[in-house]
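If you are new to this repository, start here. Below is one unmodified record pulled from the training split, so you can see the exact layout before writing a loader.
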Amino acid sequence: MPLAEPQPLILLRSLARISNFRQKDAYFSHLLKSGFILMCQLALYADGKRTKLITRRAILVGVMVGLLSGCTGGENVDFRFRTIVRLIVDGTPREFTNVMELKIARVTHSLIGMGGSSMLSGEALRIDLGSRGNIYVLPLRRYADGQISYEFFDWAVPKAFGIKNGLGSLSDQDYKDLRLLNGRKRLSIKSLPTFVAFTNENEASSLYQLDPWDIERRFPGVHFISVDVEITDAPITEELGKHLPWLVNLSEHTAFPRDPPGHQRPMRESPIAYVMLEEFFFGKGSRPYRPPQFKRPSTLKLLSRVSP
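And here is the target side for that same chain:
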């Protein structure tokens, strides 16, 4: 019998446990992610239209891809970095920061040769603007077509420090360079994380996306300058749960709204609140526990853009 509501992230988590991936080690292999996403795309897209069902056979194909995708070994590196958002607030330059940790490991014995995996720990950066409210810089990037890169910092930070190869094709020299990272670099203005805010922080449905270059429209007197990243050994920031406890005290139902069954909009037309989960405010290594009976959104809403 086909499954009406496929749940790829739950399957990926199960596969990770089967393959002895631990949360505090390298998270998923490049092929596990890209192969499973490709399987979902083939199963759910037909001439650009969403199909309703995904067969067990298709899921088994994804399982086999995951189990045969290889294992981590050889080169690995981890480092902490500070995300620094620079703003002008009422004419005064200000910086808002938090600290995250990135782990990168080489995947060996894959069907396609070498690959890479990564795991980000930490949380969204909260920009406290006092009586104006708060802005949150998520550890992801939503593109104009609606697709989301859930591993934005995983590739954006190495790239900012001059690493040209993607995570799946890092060379021995790249790993050596990653171990020696230091200093502060600016993220490209063409590649920034997603900025969001709430009209009411007690209501998940009030979440909306901000254009960083047009923040003043929603937050008068505030102008965006840049996003920098800086290597540090400071502790990982863990403050978001204190400010928004509903993000970490999860139930079997998400607080974010969803389109009714049979009336899902394309991702590019969906407001960001309709494609969000509480977990997406955190890196994979820091995501809060979700009860197993939780029903996630459809696979179509969760397909992510593969890192460059």
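Two things worth knowing about this chain: The helical segments are 8-18, 30-44, 56-67, 152-160, 172-179, 240-243, 299-302. The CA atoms of residues 99 and 234 lie 7 Å apart.
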